[in-house]
From TrEMBL:
Keywords on record: Amino-acid transport, Glycoprotein, Ion transport, Membrane, Metal-binding, Sodium, Sodium transport, Symport, Transmembrane, Transmembrane helix, Transport
Cellular-component GO terms for this entry: plasma membrane
Chain's role: Unusual broad substrate spectrum amino acid:sodium cotransporter that promotes absorption of the D isomers of essential amino acids. Neutral amino acids are the preferred substrates, especially methionine and phenylalanine.
Pfam family for this entry, one: SNF
Name by which UniProt lists this protein: Transporter
Residue positions binding Na(+) 1: V40, S276, S379
CDD domains: SLC6sbd
PROSITE patterns hit by this protein: NA_NEUROTRAN_SYMP_1, NA_NEUROTRAN_SYMP_3
């Protein structure tokens, strides 16, 4: 097809003078590494372990792997394709169907919520990194003021009776020394000054990289994506050698078949899939929008999605190996009773494992928390880039450094609330309502927009034009039928089976308000899109709002002209393609 277009005198890589072109990645590998740093990050190392523990270990792993295959990979590839094809962020991409622009706005709000609590986790990581330079790791031994405590440095604890209902020092260090944890029923409390300073330093690092633009992010990705795997492999080997590790790993890998029928487990699997691959938040679309038009995102999507799955399993084995050791040390039968569950699990299990290193524990602690800080930077860069891209797509005259600076200042100001004693409980609330439910809801509408309104047929043609790749039936069936159906069933099941977060009622009400604020964007922007159409008559306005805008298509003028010729040739051909005939019929009957 490209040969035909070039024969007609259409150049695919020439830009019109004086027309601003979106900033691009320096090299294709920088895009892939940046996506690895973004996707294979906090979602795997921080969020996956405590989500798996809360949902039964092996009982969670099977739904998670099924969801990755049926939902995660198809959406990941779809978002990469669409972002690269149109060079637009998660809001502007809905030029394909302006009536659905509220989906992008709602996803941006969810991303903003995630931004406010991802950086506090980064701040806690920095606190541990600095503490690792002490002559002895401060969490390795019990403080005299802690009751019922076992030194984390101990590999075994012989007195079974005395060790019942006791906690390791790594857990108490996190809850009492770092977070000064207190239940929300006693109030949120005042943010800790040391953690707030770490939060400020974390935001400064993120802001400095983002102010320099997407090329700066790409250059940093070489280190952000590769270095963490060296430390992960070292910790994996060490975790497997701990006494009792096998029990924990078996708990992680052995499914509980009864829990497979629990809707909440499947919802958590979907949510974790979204967090793990960072899909349906807008970050992948934003990153892909900075790609060159012909970059092979099919290859990138497969590599990153498989790497993400591999990383989650390895991280799960590390954490549950440590939990097995803790169960052995404290003589607890149930793995889920070893430590308090929740967002702080990573800062209890990992430090405890490091404290048991016989040689150079401080060195490994520095390496581990440096690694966690690095993957946290990678995750945060993707989160904030999505928000910056959405703003600059709407207001292209705004300079990047100004938008990055304002977003960073606002993000820091809101993030400080999580540094308070009740901050982690509040994090649970916003994670549940502002991220999980919002993401799952808008994932469904995103799939409807891409697969049904815009059409699987057209997506297949766009891929053929852009990458010269024929889309096989697996992707077509997933995009058009299977993935939206699975998301719908899980969303309905989760809403029916909803259980409020274990916090005072008013905080759950605040959570629902955040959810409603995000979801209401869909009808509001739909109304705006309808009445913005210049067609006469209400019905014509509605139909027009479902169709792509005149500017829709590749960013480059000549490439877009070639694309329009390509579409005309397909429409005039008697054997255009055989892509999803059922969806084609529905699409034409409703929207044409």
């Amino acid at each position: 097809m490209r040969d035909i277009l070039q024969a007609n005198g259409i150049a695919l890589s020439v830009s019109i003078p004086n027309v601003p072109i979106r900033e691009k990645w320096g090299k294709g590998v920088e895009f892939m590494l940046s996506c690895i740093a973004y996707s294979v990050g906090f979602g795997n190392i921080w969020k996956f372990p405590y989500t798996a523990l809360e949902n039964g270990g092996g009982a969670f792993l099977i739904p998670y792997l099924v969801i990755l295959f049926l939902i995660g990979r198809p959406i990941y590839y779809l978002e990469m394709v669409m972002g690269q094809f149109c060079s637009r962020g998660c809001v502007k991409i809905y030029d394909m169907a302006p009536i659905m622009r509220g989906v992008g706005v709602g996803q941006s709000l969810a991303m903003f919520v995630v931004m406010t609590y991802y950086t506090p986790v980064l701040a806690i990581t920095l606190y541990y990194l600095i503490s690792s330079f002490n002559s002895e790791l401060p969490w390795s031994r019990c403080d005299p003021s802690w009751n019922r405590c076992i030194d984390s440095v101990s590999r075994e604890f012989k007195d079974a009776n005395a060790s019942q209902n006791m906690n390791v020092s790594a857990e108490l260090f996190f809850t009492k020394t770092v977070m000064h944890r207190a239940p929300l029923a006693q109030g949120l409390g005042i943010p800790d000054m040391d953690l707030t300073l770490c939060l400020l330093a974390s935001w400064l690092v993120v802001a400095v990289i983002l102010i320099k633009g997407i090329r700066s992010t790409g250059k940093c990705a070489y280190f952000l994506a590769i270095f963490p795997y060296v430390i992960i492999l070292i910790l994996f080997v060490h975790s497997c050698t701990l006494e009792g590790a096998g029990k924990g790993i078996r708990f992680f890998l052995t499914p509980d078949w009864k829990q497979l029928f629990e809707p909440r487990v499947w919802m958590e699997a979907v949510t974790q899939c979204f967090f793990s691959l960072s899909i349906c938040f807008g970050g992948i679309i934003a990153y892909s929008s900075f790609n060159n038009f012909s970059n092979n995102v099919y290859r990138d999507a497969l590599i990153i999605s498989w790497l993400d799955t591999f990383t989650s399993i390895i991280i799960g084995c590390i954490v549950f190996g440590v939990l097995g050791n803790l169960a052995h040390v404290t003589n607890k039968e149930n793995i889920q009773d070893v430590v308090k569950q929740g967002p702080g699990l990573t800062f209890m299990a990992y430090p405890d494992a490091i404290a048991k290193f016989e040689y150079f524990p401080q060195l490994f602690s520095v390496l581990f928390f440096l690694m966690l800080f690095i993957v946290g930077i990678g995750s945060n860069l993707g989160v904030v880039t999505s928000i910056i891209t959405a703003i600059r797509d709407r207001c292209p005259t705004l300079e990047n450094w100004k938008v990055a600076s304002v977003v960073s200042v606002v993000g820091f100001s809101l993030s400080t609330i999580y540094m308070a004693p009740g901050g982690l409980d509040l994090l649970d609330v916003f994670d549940n309502y502002g991220a999980k439910y919002v993401t799952l809801t808008f994932a469904l509408f995103e799939l409807i927009t891409f697969g049904w309104i815009y059409g699987v047929d057209r997506i297949c043609r766009d891929i053929q034009f852009m990458l010269n790749i024929d889309t096989n039936k697996f992707w077509r069936i997933c995009w058009g039928i299977l993935t939206p159906l699975v998301v719908t069933v899980i969303l309905i099941g989760c809403l029916v089976d909803h259980k409020p977060v274990d916090v005072p009622e008013e905080y759950n009400i605040i959570g629902w308000c955040v959810y409603v604020l995000a979801v209401i964007q869909l009808p509001l922007w739909a109304i705006y899109a309808i009445f913005s159409q210049k067609k006469p008559g209400f019905v014509n306005k509605v139909r027009s709002a479902f169709k792509p805008t005149k500017s829709w298509g590749p960013e480059n003028y000549h490439t877009r002209k070639a694309y329009n010729i390509y579409l005309e040739k397909i429409r005039s051909s008697s054997d255009a393609d055989d892509c999803s005939n059922a969806l084609k019929f529905i699409y034409r009957r409703i929207f044409k």
